[in-house]
Each structure stands twice: as C-alpha cells, then as structure tokens.
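Handout, section B. The chain below has 134 residues.
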Amino acid sequence: MPERNPFSPRYSIVIFDGVCCLCNGFVDFILKHDKNKNFRLLPSQSSAAQKMLSVFGFASQVNDSVYLIQGGNIYKESAAGLRILKTLGFPFSLCYVFMVVPAFLRNMIYRVIAQNRYRWFGKKESCRLLPPQE
C-alpha cells in the first residue's frame, strides 16, 4: 500500500541511484519514451531527493530502491517500476499485468537484482547530472 504525502507534485518524480549503470539505463529508457513529459528525475544522492524521501520516512534507505512519487503517493521496488512503465503508455503499460503477482514475489526478484546491480551492470565514478528540464 502506498504511503500518503501532503504534497501532490504536478509531475511524477522518479528517484534513482545516480551511480548505478542499470538505474541510469532505466532513466535513459524513461527519457526516450516519456512522450508526454510526465516524469521528473532525481538521483537519490541529491539533497532534494533525500528531503522528499524523508517526508515518507525513507531517508535511511535512499539507495536501496527506485522510488516513484505520483499523485501524492510513494511507491518503491517493483511497484515503482511497473507504475513507471504503465505511465509511459502502450506498449510498456502491458507490463502492469505483473501487478497480479504477489508483491513479496515481485520484490524478492527486484531485491536480488538490486543487491547485485553494481557487480552485474557496473557503477559510475560520479552521480549523473540531469538538466533542469528533466
């Protein structure tokens, strides 16, 4: 169940690990396919991301997941990824069917990938810098 937030941003906000090559690849995918410009992106290492996550009580877990703040709610792990794909529209929205899989199973797979992401996909020397429009 998503956590409620007192603010409801105009855009959906994706908070990602800015040094993770897999996460940066997902950000590139979002930027390429976000035709309606629904998303704003923040590396989890930024102070703005840390402040947003602290509102939801996730400040100590900053780099352990991708987070999506959408409609005043926050989502993490597989729920965040699937909601991002849904928001990107067809054909990516078809992946939302995986929400019928129990969250503990989806997140178990997510966590295995997350725990090994640096070893499997690499790590950048510094955090990704995004232009203001992103």
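Note. The chain is about 40% helix and 15% strand. Compare this with the example in section A.
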